[in-house]
Structure formats: structure tokens, C-alpha cells
Specification:
The protein is of the alpha/beta class and about 250 residues long. The chain is about 50% helix and about 10% strand. The protein is globular and about 50 Å long. InterPro entries: P-loop_NTPase (IPR027417), Thymidylate_kin-like_dom (IPR039430), Thymidylate_kinase (IPR018094), UMP-CMP_kinase_2 (IPR014505).
Length: about 250
């Protein structure tokens, strides 16, 4: 049985662990009840703290489902002869459905742990080639904020709130690109794909306020901030725009 949280940070910050020690503590608290939490913790404990990036650029792609992340990341990876990584990383992704059914603080600890484990993979990969990442910390933060805060965009934490800050102990990418498309076009793409929706994807489709909170949370992230890319044009045009941004912001 999970012990009660002691008085401390406000609920939003408890739902969004903001450093590796907080992630480890959250996983320890539920490991007896959720064996997979212990397995994730074991992997996390093996990761060195304060990972350092190699000499090649690290580019993250963020955005809602059906904004073209899978297509664009694969194309960029092929064009740059890079290495493609995803969050949560492959070593824990098989447990994603288990944690998706847990209360928000435990669920977010899983995704946060995935980011720190992924950082270890990024550190190694970026010594070999450009690294392209399909989602990273910004997704964890944006969905947590949008889930924990009800109401409209103006009800979100203010622009300079600490919830939008990148964790100090997590390896930073060189560039974060936020792919966006018109809401109707995104729903059309989802229907065309015919895939089973996650709980959050169903919420995005049914609740325009939730979608707006997620997108606005992405836009408020800092250090690094997201560079927004309109992913509505053809995949060739989007790839051209993305490559121009990478050339502008990264040393290749």
C-alpha cells in the first residue's frame, strides 16, 4: 500500500517529478504493489547522473498524435544518417499500458524515469551520429500540466512558472521542434490511421480545451523552448522546413 504524500510541493509539482531523486522516490513507494516499477527503478539506478551530450546534435520532435512525428523523425534520421530514439525507450515501453492505468503521480514518474533512462542512450548515441528523438521531457510536462489543471488556457500556471522549466539534471537537446496541424486535419489523420486511441488521445479529440491546454503548455516550455513547425503541408515541404531549422540551430 502506498504511503501518503507528506505536506510539500503543490499537487501539480508532485504529479510532475522535477528531478531524478524525486522520480526514484515515487517508484520506490509503489514498487511493492507494482513489480514493474521496481524493474524501471533498477534500470534508472544504472544510469549515471548528469549525462553529457556527445559532439553530434540532438533534435527532439514534439506534438500531439497524428501531427506527423513518426514520418518526419524517420525522414530526418535517414537524411542525416542519424540515430532515432523514442520516449519511453524500448527497454521499458512494454510496461507503458500498466502505468497508463495508474494514478497520475505514478504514471508521470514512469514517463519521467523513461526520460532519464533515454538520456543515457542519448549521451552514448550523440558521440556517434546526429540523434533524432520522438518525444522527450516536454511531452511528460505538457500532458501533466494539461491533465492536472482544469478549465481554459488562462487557468494554466503563469508563463514563467517553474513547471515549464527543463529539469537541471536531465540532458538537454540542442533543438526541440513542435509539430502542429489544424485540429480537424489531425482528427482526419487519426481516423485514417484507424488505430486504437489512448485515453489521452480520446480526451484530445473529445475535449478541445484539453487540447488547447496541452498545446499552450508546449509553447510555454523554456530552456529549451519549442520551435513551432506547421506540419500541415506535404511531408516533403515539412521535411524541408525542419532541415532548414536544424541547419540554422545545430552544428552539422
Amino acid at each position: 500500500m502506498l504511503r501518503r504524500c507528506p505536506p510539500g510541493p503543490p499537487p501539480l509539482l508532485r504529479a510532475l517529478p522535477t528531478a531524478a531523486p524525486a522520480v526514484r522516490q515515487r517508484l520506490r513507494e509503489c514498487a511493492a504493489r507494482i513489480p514493474e516499477a521496481g524493474a524501471v527503478l533498477d534500470l534508472l539506478e544504472k544510469c549515471p547522473e548528469h549525462q553529457k551530450k556527445g559532439g553530434f546534435p540532438v533534435v527532439v520532435f514534439e506534438g500531439l498524435d497524428a501531427t506527423g512525428k513518426t514520418t518526419v523523425t524517420q525522414s530526418v534520421k535517414d537524411t542525416l544518417n542519424g540515430i532515432l530514439l523514442r520516449s519511453p525507450p524500448a527497454c521499458i515501453s512494454q510496461w507503458r499500458t500498466i502505468f497508463d492505468d495508474e494514478p497520475a503521480p505514478i504514471k508521470r514518474a514512469f514517463y519521467a524515469a523513461g526520460n532519464y533512462i533515454l538520456a543515457s542512450e542519448i549521451a552514448k548515441a550523440s558521440t556517434q551520429a546526429p540523434v533524432i528523438i520522438d518525444r522527450y521531457w516536454h511531452s511528460t510536462a505538457a500532458y501533466t500540466i494539461a491533465t492536472e489543471i482544469n478549465g481554459e488556457v488562462q487557468d494554466l500556471p503563469p508563463v514563467h512558472d517553474e513547471v515549464y522549466q527543463w529539469p537541471e539534471d536531465l540532458l538537454k537537446p540542442d533543438l526541440v521542434l513542435l509539430l502542429t496541424v489544424d485540429p480537424k486535419e489531425r482528427v482526419r489523420r487519426l481516423q485514417h490511421r484507424g488505430l486504437e486511441k489512448t485515453k489521452e488521445e480520446a480526451e484530445l479529440e473529445a475535449n478541445c480545451l484539453f487540447r488547447q491546454r496541452v498545446e499552450e503548455s508546449y509553447r510555454r516550455m523554456v530552456n529549451p523552448a519549442c520551435q513551432e513547425v506547421d506540419a500541415s503541408p506535404s511531408k516533403e515541404e515539412v521535411l524541408k522546413t525542419v532541415l532548414q531549422l536544424i541547419k540554422k540551430h545545430c552544428a552539422l
